[in-house]
Amino acid sequence: MPPEQAEDAGDKTALNAATDKASEKTALNAATDAADPKADDKADDKADDKADPKADDKSDNKADPKADDKAGSPKEFETFTIPEEITFASEDISAIEEAARAMNLDQPGAQKLVDLAAALEGTRTQAQDQAFEDTKAEWLDQAKKDKDIGGSKWKGTLEDAGAFLQAFGTLEVAEVFEATGAGNHPEMIRMLAAAGRVVKNDRILTGNSRSGTATNRADRMFPNQGKSQGKK
Q: N or C, which end of the chain has less CB nearby within 10 Å?
């Protein structure tokens, strides 16, 4: 309210107070009611009533009573349980332990990480093994179908390769062929067969009995081709 109006209102109230007792009483009552000293107390009481007496309890309940019970990561982890068919390098174990400490895992929690890593490694190894077997089978199929060394020439090819291996091969070479699958590769078989023909032409190996021995050696050197394949 502007000052001028406030002054007018004050004057009017004063005039009414001199001539009209009712107005004066009303004005005084209004002023008295407005300045009721109990009003603030009532407001404070209502505010206190609205305050949730359980708020502090809820706040206390939010604190995890088990937080102090959690052991967390030990200074040194115990030896983990790893499946026999899975092999982890020492750096792999170190990486798992580092991850476990970053997540504040205890021994059982870290073991779960190891179990997961072992499962993934097992799946990866199986996939690799299957891919290796598929590759060896594909190489052998290509060799048997090759126009120069396969088909009707397949048996003679193995005999020629066996002749060379009979003269110069060792069982260690056979192990390498088996481990790498090279004994099924068309180009390896082609090379050994050609070398075997040179050996036979130079009469290093002669006679049917030696030829049979060469074939047996070829069977050992190329175990994946099978003894009962015969001619194609």
A: N
The pLDDT assigned to 200 comes to: 86
Report mean pLDDT in 10-residue bins for the chain, 232 residues.
49 40 42 48 53 52 47 90 93 95 95 96 94 96 96 96 90 91 95 93 53 52 51 42
Torsion of CA 113, 118, 121, 127, to 10 degrees: -130
Domain residue extents for the chain: 71-134, 146-225
Angle between helices 207-221 and 154-168 (to 10 degrees): 90
Q: How much is the pTM? A: 0.52
89 secondary structure, DSSP code? -
Contact by Cβ (8 Å): 73, 104: yes
- Residue 135 and residue 100: Cα distance in Å, rounded? 38
Looking at residue 208, what is its pLDDT? 43
Helices (H), 35-153: 37-50, 55-62, 90-102, 107-145
State the residue for tokens 């021994």: 107
CB-CB contact of 102 with 65 (8 Å): no
Q: Are 218 and 165 in contact (CB under 8 A)?
A: yes
Residues whose CB is less than 8 angstroms from the CB of residue 29 and which lie 6 or more positions away in sequence, other chains included: none
Which structure tokens are listed for 5? 């109006």
> For position 68, what pLDDT does the model report?
42
